[in-house]
């Protein structure tokens, strides 16, 4: 297992600050890229790793495209040497973020990870498997996605973690902070989702 884990993890060097963006990427789109580039700048990260999941436990996965197709599409959309695409969750056979974070922290203690998610995910973060343990193990950056702002910041998880929230002007310090720590980043105005880019039969718009 360790050898396969190493093969699924993008190239890196000790001390790198790495943002983790998990998702189905079904399909990947320009908002994924924009969020990543925004996080690279605001959080002063070295790399972003897109973790393409085998399937989201909180979503219906009946129309999920094959992993290899989503991986290749993600690489095409990323189009930035600082954004790497990984199938780690498939390799370690999990669909849960807590397993992914446990594996990365155990195998690569010299890297500084930040979990990145949209405000829509913060709104339902309390439904994630072991969400409190996730927050206790890795700093988190939440990207505002209007009109989800109020729903996200008033969610059970946001309220429970409110005392660990950093001011937005301290975002560049997040990767160096011990967890729990999180920041809510505003200023990126995008209204695009994978759901809107899928046809009713699950095929991707503009690809058939």
Our estimate of the beta-strand percent is: 15-25%
Overall radius of gyration: 16 Å
Distance between the terminal alpha carbons, to the nearest Å? 37 Å
**How many separate domains make up the residues?**
1
The CATH topology comes to Rossmann fold
Query: Can you write the helix and strand succession as a string?
Result: HEHEHEHHEHHEHHE
If you average the pLDDT, what whole number results? 88
Helicity range: 25-40%
> What is the CATH architecture descriptor?
3-Layer(aba) Sandwich
Considering the protein shown, what is the CATH homologous superfamily? Answer: HUPs
Number of continuous helical runs: 9
Low-confidence stretches: none
Spatial shape: globular
Strand order of the largest sheet: 3-2-1-4-5-6
Main beta sheet: strand number and arrangement? Answer: 6 strands, parallel
Q: What is the CATH C level class, in words?
A: Alpha Beta
Extended strand count: 6
Helix-and-strand structural type: alpha/beta
Q: Describe it for me?
A:
With 208 residues, the chain is α/β, with parallel strands linked by helices. It has a single domain (17-197), classed as HUPs (Rossmann fold, 3-Layer(aba) Sandwich). 33% of the residues lie in helices and 15% in strands. The chain contains nine helices and six strands. Strands 3-2-1-4-5-6 form a six-stranded parallel sheet. Helix 5 (97-107) packs parallel to helix 7 (131-137). The longest helix has 13 residues, at 30-42. It is globular and about 40 Å long. It starts with a helix and ends in a 23-residue tail after the last strand. The mean pLDDT is 88. Keywords: ATP-binding, NAD, Nucleotide-binding, Nucleotidyltransferase, Pyridine nucleotide biosynthesis, Transferase. Its EC number is 2.7.7.18.
């Amino acid at each position: 297992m360790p050898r396969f884990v190493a093969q699924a993890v993008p190239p890196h060097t000790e001390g790198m600050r790495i943002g983790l963006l998990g998702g189905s990427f079904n399909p990947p789109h320009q908002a994924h890229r924009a969020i990543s580039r925004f996080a690279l700048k605001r959080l002063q990260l070295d790399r972003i790793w897109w973790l393409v999941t085998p399937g989201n436990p909180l979503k219906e996965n009946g129309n999920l495209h094959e992993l290899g197709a989503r991986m290749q599409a993600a690489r095409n959309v990323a189009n930035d040497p600082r954004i790497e695409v990984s199938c780690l969750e498939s390799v370690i056979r999990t669909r849960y973020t807590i397993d992914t974070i446990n594996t990365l922290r155990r195998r690569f203690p010299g890297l500084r990870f930040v979990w990145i998610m949209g405000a829509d995910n913060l709104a339902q973060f309390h439904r994630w498997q072991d969400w409190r343990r996730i927050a206790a193990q890795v700093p988190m950056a939440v990207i505002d996605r209007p009109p989800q702002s109020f729903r996200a910041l008033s969610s059970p998880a946001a309220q429970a973690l409110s005392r660990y929230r950093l001011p937005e002007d301290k975002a560049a310090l997040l990767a160096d902070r011990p967890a729990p720590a999180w920041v809510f980043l505003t200023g990126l105005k995008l209204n695009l989702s994978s759901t809107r880019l899928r046809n009713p039969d699950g095929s991707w718009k503009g690809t058939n």
